[in-house]
Specification:
Blueprint (H helix, E strand, L loop, with lengths): L1 H13 L5 H16 L7 H8 L11 H16 L27 H14 L3 H17 L3 H5 L6 E2 L4 E4 L8 E4 L2 H17 L17 H15 L13 H16 L4 H12 L15 H18 L1
Antiparallel strand pairs: 1-2, 2-3
Helix pairs in contact: 2-4, 5-6, 5-9, 6-8, 6-10, 10-11
Length: 304
């Protein structure tokens, strides 16, 4: 079954899917079946895994576990007819999407100050602060920023080439001259402390920064800065991406620009597969909803 899992993941990734979380879930699932001596996937084995209350918190969402297992069993059923595919509606309550925290410029500045003040070593502080700034001013995904190599930055033209993006879709991200200058300053300080490396953002040991380590350091900086303290949950690092998109849309509306015509441009910049994935940002704030409603009313008036 382990070999079948490898084939399944390879096939899905060839179609452009990342499946990192699915791989973690399914590796755990297959290991449990092997340990139990199961020769095929039964409904009982699936239910025991999907609703296991003893799994660690990172994998405690039954809906996500079911989604991963169901995709794998649909693939397996074409190979082994004994495979029992769980129904799609087995877990009916779908978790609601948590509203993102929208960082203001002052919030970002406070987090950067906290990052520089709280890190144990100056180099770690600069790495954390530089990453926060880059994410805030570009809306890049965290994984994309962590994978940036020095050669991916066109230091003269102020363009960052994003590789290994979601769905395998690379793109060029244009940044300001001040952003490039800040990255160049970080790289200079980095190279003065250890031999130059291909990866732009590295740890104290000179190895690439990993997501979990950066995410933890970011949460600590947010806590120290007191940002979002009055809310029901602390801001997440991915909220920087939401904030960039909302800030861009608000700027266009306030300038009286044709947002409908510009939305595909923002979609491409953010690396969305289709513009429809960018439309959800229009509901992020009351002001954006108001602008969108006003534009819709104006369009309907013209049609009438």
């Amino acid at each position: 079954m382990e070999a079948a899992l490898g084939d399944y993941l390879g096939l899905r990734r060839a179609l452009g899917h990342k499946l990192d979380e699915h791989e973690r879930q399914l590796t755990r699932f297959v290991a449990r079946l092997d340990a139990a001596g199961a020769t095929f996937v039964s409904m009982a084995g699936t239910l025991a895994f999907v609703f296991d209350p003893d799994l660690d918190p990172a994998s405690s969402n039954p809906a996500k576990r079911l989604m991963a297992v169901r995709g794998f069993t649909r693939y397996l059923s074409a190979i082994d007819p004994r495979t029992e595919v769980p129904p799609a509606g087995l877990v009916s309550c779908r978790p609601s999407r948590r509203a993102p925290y929208l960082f203001s410029d002052e919030d970002v500045a406070a987090v950067v100050r906290a990052a520089r003040a709280s890190a144990s070593f100056a180099f770690r502080a600069e790495t954390l602060a530089s990453l926060v700034v880059l994410l805030a001013v570009t809306g890049m995904r965290v994984g994309e920023a962590l994978r940036v190599d020095c050669c991916d930055v066109d230091w003269d033209q102020a363009v960052i080439k994003v590789r290994g993006a979601k769905f395998g879709k690379g793109r060029d991200v244009v940044v300001s001259g001040s952003t490039v200058d800040a990255l160049a300053s970080y790289r200079s300080r980095r190279d003065s402390r250890r031999p130059a490396t291909a990866r732009l953002f590295v740890s104290l040991a000179g190895t690439p920064v990993i997501y979990s380590g950066f995410s933890l350091a970011f949460r600590q900086a947010v806590l120290a800065a007191g940002v979002g303290a009055e809310g029901p949950a602390r801001p997440r690092v991915h909220d920087l991406r939401h904030s960039f998109a909302v800030r861009t849309l608000l700027g266009w509306y306030r300038a009286g620009l044709d947002v409908e015509a510009l939305l595909p441009r923002l979609s491409t910049y953010l690396g969305h597969r289709e513009p429809r994935f960018t439309y959800r940002y229009l509901t992020a704030t009351p002001e954006l909803l108001g602008h969108a409603a006003a534009r819709l009313e104006a369009t309907q008036a013209v049609i009438r």
